Amino acid sequence: MAGSESFGVESGFGEQVLEWMNSEAKKRKSKFEARSYSYEITTKNFGTFEMFSWIGDVKAARSLITKASRRFKIRVIEGGYRTKEKVLKSKKQILPWSERAIE
Q1: Alpha carbon 30 to its chain's center
Q2: Is 51 exposed, middle or buried (0-12, 13-18, 19+ CB in 10 A)?
Q3: Higher pLDDT, 100 or 29
Q4: Residue 1: its pLDDT value, please?
Q5: 55: helix, coil or strand?
Q6: What CATH number has the domain bearing residue 56?
Q7: pLDDT digits (tens, 9 = 90+) for 39-69
Q8: Which alpha helices (DSSP H) does the chain contain, by range?
Q9: Is the per-residue pLDDT at 3 higher than 50?
Q10: Cβ neighbours around 88 below 10 Å, total
């Protein structure tokens, strides 16, 4: 989760959840701010999610996101995608068994 800065909450709960998380962060005086993307993702198995991004402390984000999920009884997804520029491609060469034994 440390590398991801985008999450999604069940459709219809976006504004409500973001307002609650931001107000809780202010109460706790923690470094956290969530903002809406105004973008939705539909998954085959779990439904539609409103995406949002956050900035701040990872520990505070984890805590607030899980508490919001429990409080509003909603699903939350992590958008662990990366842009093409950030993805490193590597090829792993698979050696036959005979060559592995030599190494």
Answers
A1: 19
A2: middle
A3: 29
A4: 45
A5: strand
A6: 3.30.70
A7: 898 988 889 999 998 888 888 888 999 999 9
A8: 14-28, 58-72, 97-102
A9: no
A10: 6
Structure tokens at 28: 């706790």
Two tokens at 82?
A: 């990366």
Q: Domain span at residue 53?
A: 6-102
Q: What separation in angstroms does the CA of 41 have from each of 6, 27, 44, 74, 79?
A: 12, 30, 10, 15, 10
Written as six digits, the tokens of 72 are 């509003």
> What separation in angstroms does the CA of 33 have from each of 30, 55, 60, 66, 94?
9, 5, 10, 15, 45
Residues with Cβ < 8 Å from 41, sequence gap 6 or more?
8, 48, 49, 51, 77, 79
Q: What's the number of domains the chain is made of?
A: 1
Residue 1 resides in a domain: no
Q: What is the mean pLDDT of the chain?
A: 80
pLDDT at 72: 96
Q: Copy the structure tokens of residue 74.
A: 């909603």
